[in-house]
Specification:
Elements (H helix, E strand, L loop, with lengths): L7 H8 L6 E4 L6 H8 L6 E6 L2 H4 L8 E5 L5 H7 L5 E7 L4 H5 L25 H7 L2 H12 L4 H14 L5 H8 L8 H16 L2 H15 E11 L2 H13 L7 E2 L5 E2 L2 E3 L9 H6 L7 E7 L2
Parallel strand pairs: 1-2, 1-4, 2-3, 4-5
Antiparallel strand pairs: 5-9, 6-7, 8-9
Helix pairs in contact: 7-8, 7-10, 11-12
The structure holds S-adenosylmethionine.
S-adenosylmethionine binds next to helix 2 and strand 2.
Amino acid sequence: MYHQPVLLPETIAGLVTNPDGVYVDVTYGGGGHSREILNNLSPKGRLLGFDQDKDAAKNALQDPRFQFVLSNFKHLKKFLQFYKAYPVDGILADLGVSSHQFDEPKRGFSYRFDELLDMRMDTGKGITAAEIVNTYPAQKLAKLLFALGEVQNAHKIAARIEKTRQLNPIQTTGQLTEIVTPLLPKGKENKLLSQIFQALRIEVNAEIEALQSLLEQSVEALNAGGRIAIISYHSLEDRLVKNLLKTGNTEGKLHKDFYGNPLTPFKRISKKAIIPTDEEIEQNPRARSAKLRIAEKMI
Ligand SMILES: C[S@@+](CC[C@H](N)C(=O)[O-])C[C@H]1O[C@@H](n2cnc3c(N)ncnc32)[C@H](O)[C@@H]1O
């Protein structure tokens, strides 16, 4: 299976409020959420599905109401306008990588295989994880390991990487794993390796910058009464989403009207994030860190 959709009924129930409306799933992946959105739309409804990974395009749904867009979602507005689908009634983002990307050894996302350190979702552009580990100064490497992977001994790991690469460039996931494993706390190696690989993946794909851009565009891209649903898996992503829903911007700057009342374009559908049930996590462990936030644009 390409990918098992996370929080599927909760997402669809909160997102689709107008069966005749125009919706966009900006992280199409295996199309699990998209398929269910279409099931809830009338023959008049429309759905656009974005993904920057060519592999996702191979699963594009064959439905006259559906349009696949092979692009980074940071270009949301431009493509919605191009397809005459602007503004929309609902935006869905299910962030991060798909199981297909993670489980395909050649993509270099996982320490479970020994392959070239690539990690690009869009294999046609940008820098690879190998370029990052071989060229970033130790200080910059340490910063990203700490900020994006919450890796505690990031400085030691970065220093070891810098020292080792002077002898031989680090080209594969296996080489990187071998270099850093002796520095990881015993019994927690897998957890730490996941954090290190996650940090590199987020940097390679500039995921935080893309999310910021998507969220900022979403305010204008939604019709009044339209909904936004974001599933995040990382505290940095969730912070941006929370800020947007509270204030209408990702910095979390609250603007007030003349009388001091907070001005925000969104009404949150549930105060707290929606998280998977124990049953869902048991059945799909990759759902465990998911947080779904849904809001409605008011004006
Ligand atoms: C968690 S998966 C989505 C799975 C999907 N909801 C499903 O049910 O199959 C995330 C997908 O979003 C894509 N993606 C991540 N960041 C992206 C971005 N900035 N622009 C476009 N696609 C992105 C990835 O390539 C991946 O296929």
